[in-house]
Every structure is written in C-alpha cells, then in structure tokens.
Specification:
single chain; alpha+beta; 5-stranded antiparallel β-sheet; about 35% helix; about 15% strand; binds flavin-adenine dinucleotide
Amino acid sequence: MGVKDKQTANPSLKITFHRYNTVIVGSGAAGMNCAVHLYEFMCQKGFSRKESAERIVVVTRGLALGASRMSGSDKQTYYKMGTSPDVPDSAEEFARTLSNAGCCHGDLAIAEAIGSLREFYHLVQVGVPFPTDSMGSFVGYKTDHDPFERATSAGPKTSKFMSECLQRQLERYGVEIADNQEVAHLLTVGCGQSRRIAGVVTVDRKSLYRVRLRVNIYLGANIVLAAGGPGELYETSVYPKGQVGIHGLAFKAGLVGENLTESQFGLASTKFRWNVSGTYMQAIPRIFSTDAGGSDERDFLAGYFPSMSKMATNIFLKGYQWPFDPQRIENQQSSLIDLLVFNETQKGRHVFLDFLHNPVGHSEWQPQAQLGDGKPLARTRGEQPSPSPGDEATRMEPPTGTFNIEALEPEAYQYLKRAGALQDTPIDRLFAMNPPAIEIYKQNGIDLYAEPLEIAVCAQHNNGGFAVNKWWESNIPGTFVIGEMAATHGVKRPGGSALNAGQVGGLRAAQYIVNVYGCELPDYSASEDEITGQLDQLFAKFDKYRAVGSPMPKVMIQRIQKRMTLSAGIMRESKTARRALKEAVELYRLIQKNGLSAPGKRALVWAIQAEHLALTSVAYLKAIVELLRQGGGSRGSHLVIARDGVEIHPDIIVGTTGQPAAAGKVLKFKPENPSLRDSVLRVAYDDSLPDMFRCESVELRAAPSDAKAFEPAWRDFREGKIYRENEG
Ligand SMILES: Cc1cc2nc3c(=O)[nH]c(=O)nc-3n(C[C@H](O)[C@H](O)[C@H](O)COP(=O)(O)OP(=O)(O)OC[C@H]3O[C@@H](n4cnc5c(N)ncnc54)[C@H](O)[C@@H]3O)c2cc1C
C-alpha cells in the first residue's frame, strides 16, 4: 500500500509515510459516515472491496473521544425532514427553518434538507435504534414551535449510537481506523490557487510512553476534515474533555472560517458534562445557588419573575428552548434563566438543579388564581387575580408563591398532563417522562435522588466553522470539511440539526470525491522538497517545545480558556473583546518566538494543542471584534452589552469576574442588527497583519431555483454535469 519508512537523522523519531486516496480526520458521527459512503461509492465504481477499503483511512486522536461519542442530553435530538404519516413536510420548508434567522447559505440549507431523509434511513440501515410505531412510522416530536414533528431520538446517546453503528459498518468493510493519532500539522503543497492539503502529520499518542516517538504522515489525494468543534477553547464548557479540534492547524493551512461568532451556550451540568435540556427542565426542578463554601442557599430566580406560574413555566420551556437566546430574555421569557444563572456564577456562586424539591417562590408574590386545566389568568406583579366567576375548577394558589402544577401556563401544563407527569416532585415527574435521563447520571456517579446537580451556562456548539460549498468542499480544492467543523449553520439552528448536517455533509463530500476527483492514490514526488521542508520545520518546533523556562502548555491552555469564556461567551462587549484579542495575539506570538516548556515526551501533545488553540482563539476573537465593529447586536446565543442598550431588570448587574468594561453597572444590551443577516463574516489567516486574520463579509449564496424536467436532469446526471458549478 505504498507505505514507506523514512529514517531520519534523529534516532528518537520513527517516521512512517502512508498513502491513501482519502484521509478523513475525526471518528465522530460525521467522519465515520463519510468513510462508509466513500467505500460504498468506490465499490459502485468497480473497485473490489479490498481495493476500496485500502484507499480510505480514518485518523483520530481517540475513537472514544469527541462530541458524538461522549455528549448528549435527556433525549439527544436528531432533526430530520418530517416522517409523520399525517403531517406533510417539504425540503423547501425544512431549508426555510434552517436559514430563517439569517447568515445561512441557501444552497447548504436546501442540500441539508434534500439529503436529510436519505441519511436518516442510512442510519436506520446501519442499526441506529430510532423508534417506530407498529406500522413502521418513525415517531417524531416537536422542538420549539416546529409543526412538522421533525425531531426524533434514539435516547440520551443518539450520536454515540450513530458513530458506533457506523464504526461497526466500517469494520465489516475493512476500512482502517488509525486511533491515538494527535494531528500536529496539515501538510500543504503549492501556493495561491494551486495550493492543496497533501496530508496529515500525526504524533502517535501511544508512542509517548515508548523510547521512540512515532510520527505518521498520511498522504491523501483528498482530505476530509471532521475533527469536530473547538471544545477545549472554553473554561466553562459542556464539550467533552479532550475535544480539541484542529481549527488552528486548518487556518494555518489556508482554510477560511465563516460565522465563527455564532457559538451556542446553554445550561449544562459541570461535574459530569451533559446538557440539562428536554425533560430535565420540563420536570421543573428547583433552581438555587450557594456561596463557594456551599452555604447561603438562595432561590435567586424568584426576584425576577412576577409569579410562580411564570417562573415555573419558563423553567419548563427551557427544556426545548435550550440554547441561550437574547431574543428570549425580555418580558420574563425562558432565556432570562440562563442570564440569571450566568450572573450568579459571575459572583462566584454555585448554581444547582434540585430534583427533590419544586421551585421556591417569592414571599411577596400575590396569591394567584388558576383554572384546573392549567389555564393561567394573565397578570403582572402586584395585580390582583381575577378568576372567572362560576368556573368550578378555579382555585387559589397558596399565598407564598408555593409551586402548584395546575397553575402552569397551558403549554407546560398540557404537555405534562399528556406525558403523565403531574406527580408531586420533579424527580417523580422526570422518572415518569424519561427514566434513562436519571440513569445516565447514575452511571456517571451522580444520584439525582440524593444530591443536587451543579449547572452553569456552558459552551456547547459552534454554528460556524470552515467555509464550504454545496459539496462541502472548502476553499482549498480537494479538502472537504464536514460535521461541526463545517460552517453550515446560520445564527440559529433547530436543536438536532447538527447531527443531520454532519451526515449530509459526509454523503455529499464522498459523492464528489469519487465522481470528480476519482479513486486513485496521490503522487507527491514532485513536491518532495516542500514536504520535507515542512517536516523539518515541525521537528525543529518539537525541539523548541523542550525549551526550559518557556511557558508551560497546560498553563497557556487554561489562560486561553479563561479568556474565551469571559470575552467570547454569552456576553460580549467591544472594549473587552478588543483587549482579549490583543492578549490572544501576544500569547500566540510569544509561543512562536519562545516555544513552550514541554520537556518530557508526554507533554508534547499539550504543546501541540496549546499552539493551535492559541491561534484558534485569535481567529474567534478577531471575528467577534469585527462583528461588533460592524454594529452587530445581540443575536444567536450571545448578548452584546451596550451603555445605551435595553435594560432587562434594574437588579441585573454586569458581573465583575474578569472585569468587563461595564462591570458593576446595570446590564443593558444592544438588540440584533438585522441588516447583518444577509451576509456571512469570513476570516482568513494572514500572518502579515497585526491581528493575524483578514476579515471579509460575503453575501449569502441562494438556493438553486432551476428545477429541471426529468430528461434534461437525467442527462446532466449521466454526464456528470451536476458536479460542475453552474452546469448541473
Ligand atoms: C452536550 C452536547 C449535547 C449535544 N446535543 C445535540 C443534539 O441533541 N442534537 C444535535 O444535533 N447535536 C447535538 N450536539 C452537537 C453534536 O453532538 C456535535 O455537533 C456532533 O456530534 C459533532 O460531530 P462530529 O463528527 O463533527 O465531531 P465529533 O463527534 O466531535 O468528533 C470529532 C473527532 O475528531 C477527533 N479529534 C478532535 N481533535 C483532534 C485532534 N487534534 N487530532 C486528532 N483527532 C482529533 C476526535 O477524537 C473525534 O474522533 C451536542 C453537543 C454537546 C456537546
């Protein structure tokens, strides 16, 4: 298989070259799926099973790592086109939902819509246990005002099942998975328009414990990057530990980023990293905080809601209005809860969900009337209740604002009633709705029957990533980006659409590779000098990482994480972001100049990660600074603080941790600037610039609108015109 050992002058290194048609980086749901499709398309092109399998490799730092393998929620959602037998859905409707909050390319949205069911059924075929009814319909549910019941789930670990089932398929096909490979560099050849990524250089993590360090070089005619989101960028994060990503390496290789500003944040448990969406919040737990020592319990939400009904209903709604959304904070909506939790943690306090007790109200709340069917009587703080005369079911809520399930607003009450979850305590309601949601914490050492669950507002997902066209090809021909690394989502996305996008992207990339670039192995003999030059530089850098007295990589990573959480999290502010960008640039330059202090071989991986995370943080901060400069307001999952902005509540003060410029003042936010919805902010690495990244706003691409009759469409397909821009 063209594997060539190359002995170097350095006896402590063992370098091995490998050659494949396609090298896929990342073994999450996206990468695995792309590998499965590639193999199948190659076989369809006439290659034998062995020939097809030998042409593909999946390279990963850990088969058991990454968001697909390690993350989830109460019932992790897969969002697909509707499969309900009695509710019609269409690809155009689906694409509209994906793109209607702006900054989403129309061709990507429609491609994700059209490919949705094909990929969903592909997962069913490889064995993901999505539930059906007795007639075979795939049962769906509604997420957040979705009338098509597009969401489905295989339980709390949907994405784990996806990647495991796809892995088994790859193993049946005999495709190699190179595990324990830390990506250290993306090899490039050529420049300008003819620049290509020729391969991936990895450090074998297992060899860190042996005498000789093993370095692998996976050369590929095509490269598919599926290394997930930059989870380790943030201090407060629900990304699984060890989900580093390779964004910094990809920027350096010349890939351009889009929508990097659109990270998503939401409530998640921190001891065991898991989203507390869905039934965790629909069970309506008590939410309280303590001081750092665990004393001074406070039911801090109560001061900001006018009644128990409003507060408890909003806790319920957080279940399916999960990410923090600045358009849901005014007038006591559900994202006010994220903001209050964030503010509490900014004061150094700890916040918990308590499933043994119902929410505790405010002693000043007035008694509230409600109807036995859960219908509320609209009322604001201080107003007297006005029950409907003669309504037999009308009762009075106890005067202290005690929780009363029948006083919930109709959406919440009816949901719980239909779900058979009107029990007296949150834990009983959670058990009635979703016992695996309790079990998953038990498996991870947390007994929800015995202890409260610590939560925070955590970084969870990046809607942005690297720019791709409608075949998920990046700006560098032959390099594709799929899954969370690809910038296919807009400012908002429906919950579950990340998994759909990852599958469709892998299918489209595989289709394009096999039909356009072919299945041959690469020949980079003409570029040997370039490749050798880059390897020499890389190994020289490894030596520099041994410099005693330079900064420690782990310390650098912690510094990056703290800065990102403070300046690039749910609250953003121009002055603070500019200061953070300046510090991030200085840190990266310092690492370039002085190296890092990683004297032992085992620390080498930390040093590699620290360097590329440092560059990633510059890219993200540069995008944030630029968007704020363009007049960007609060959108997606972040709030922009502005002195002349909208006040939420006089008692909501900007936290003092990390001293944002507005610290200690009443929080005022700048509403969204809708004029920015029609463009996407791009960033590209350019070391000659003071901030190291060039920014550009690009117009949104529209969805193709030329529906053809069958015969011409068939001809385009036969002649391969569908792969040629502006032809098919
Ligand atoms: C708590 C949580 C809950 C979520 N819930 C949902 C949900 O309900 N619905 C939904 O659609 N989405 C959800 N998401 C998002 C979704 O899980 C991810 O977007 C998706 O799984 C990403 O898949 P991926 O294949 O792109 O990357 P991942 O699954 O993250 O895989 C990345 C791969 O790259 C490898 N890798 C990473 N860095 C390196 C490196 N430096 N060198 C070598 N290899 C590397 C990893 O080991 C891994 O194999 C959730 C995310 C989280 C964190």
